[in-house]
Amino acid sequence: MASDSTPKTESSPAGTDRRFDTEKILALSIGHFIHDVYTGFLAPLLPLLIEKLSLSLTQAGFLSTIMQLPALLNPHIGQLADRISGRYFVILAPALTAVPMSLIGMAPSYGVLLILMFITGVSVSVWHVPAPVMIAELSAARKGRGMSFFMTGGELARSVGPLVAVGAVSVFGLEDFYPVMIFGLLATVWLYFKLRTIPVRQVGSRRKFSVLETWRTLSFVLLPLSAILVARGFMHAAMTAFLPTYIKMETGNLWLAGIALTLFEAAGVAGVLMAGSISDWFGRRKTLLVSLLGAPLFLFIFTLSGGWIRLAALIATGFTLLSTSPVMLALVQENARQAPAAANGFYMMASFIARSAVVVVVGFIADRIGLNATYLISAAMGLVGIPFVLMLPRK
Asked: Is 343 helix (H, G, I), strand (E, B) or coil?
């Protein structure tokens, strides 16, 4: 049986350079960072928007739902990108996201705010569906390494985005911080000059695959990955959505709660940066297997221990849990030669559904049995993903 530990050499599409294109990959990673900084504006500014527009908590929560709703269209956006050119989508997305997110403070009503959130959601999909396809092409045989570079930009943005929003509002005020959109507009211009030499049609065949055909052709990869996303989602929801609350309940220290989340995310950045390259040599399945064995184990230790052991377990959980993203993205692209953007659209849609649904389930469980027991259950659910890793193709 063939091993999956050796980097693969792929046939070169016409007009492409099969070397690892560091310059363009770094440009896309920086673009990812700038783009995702704007998507981090909503959460820190939500209290100000609630006060300004007299919103209920239900209305405030619905804003995030509306922004994520276009993710359900990801397969169709991917199909469109396959037929036109993902390059155009990627170049325009930073500006299309920066403008509505920089205008949320000026929104005169809740309805206008919903429209701005929906436009942002469409733009987020327009960026995240085709961009990994470009990364895969520019990475040649080292797709894992390319995905790691790309995802590192997004992980860093999640930490910086809220700081940028709060800083801009502190300087300009809620209704006048819109000039920050200039960075997104400049990013679009910069990406145009960086990416304009990439051929318009780089990947795929001449045949136009429908969305349904794409799913049928790639279900052998997409179904196991979707199951892994759900199993992993329990640990991800417990740590990203409820970690500050958990630490605050355990220690009574709000600063410690914030520091814990920062350490978790920082460890995740390191994991994302390293995991893709490791999977290029060690193998995608083996890397996912190590992550899905390690993350539940470290989460168990984090929940049941204290002191320095708990701190070390927190860092190890962040490193192993968050490191799976570039590996799974590389798997999708390696198996989606004919309709890569549409395939990535299905993966991103599954990721959205898993995150949105599981976090509600985790919260529901925590309300009834407490966060400590919920963390143990979430760690156990992470182990459920292991059989699905073994269902993934070896090569």
From this structure: helix
Q: If DSSP codes are grouped into helix, strand and coil, which group holds residue 95?
A: helix
DSSP state of 14: T
- Provide the residue ranges of all domains of the chain, joining segments of one domain with +: 19-203, 209-395
Alpha-carbon span 162 to 240, nearest angstrom = 15
CB neighbour list of residue 96: distance below 8 Å, 6 or more residues apart: 119, 122, 123, 126
Distance CA 158, CA 139 (A): 24
∠ CA 8-152-198 to the nearest 5 degrees?
60
Q: Is the domain covering 19-203 a CATH 1.10.760.10 domain?
A: no
What interhelical angle do 340-369 and 131-139 show, nearest 10? 120
Same-fold call for 19-203 versus 209-395: yes
| Tens digits of residue pLDDT in 106-160 | 999 999 999 999 999 999 989 988 888 889 888 888 888 899 999 899 888 887 8
The fold of the 209-395 domain, in CATH, is: Growth Hormone; Chain: A; (1.20.1250)
Beta strand spans in 113-253 (E): none
